[in-house]
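User:
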Amino acid sequence: MVQGCLCKFNSVYKKGVLNSVGEIISPLLISRASVKVLLLTFMRVGALVPGEWSEADWDQRIWTIPARRMKGRDSTRQEHIIPFSQPLIDILDFLKPITGHSPYIF
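Assistant: Predicted structure:
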């Protein structure tokens, strides 16, 4: 099982992934972008990486992380609002043509 997963990962890593216009993109670019977003927002990996494009409000320039992905007991969790900074907007604009065909940002 693990060997099969490693083979699949290695083939994707070597070949890259297709973006929405059919260009081959290295997964390393998406990983680098996710690390930059983590550093810009100070969010936990488990709350940020499953982020969806639908959570981003471009008009109000905020990203709303649902309470279900925040750390804590169910009774104390609250949604978290991340204001868009220009560097964050730049990264999301970079990712949109790569992962925009998927519901997930990363």
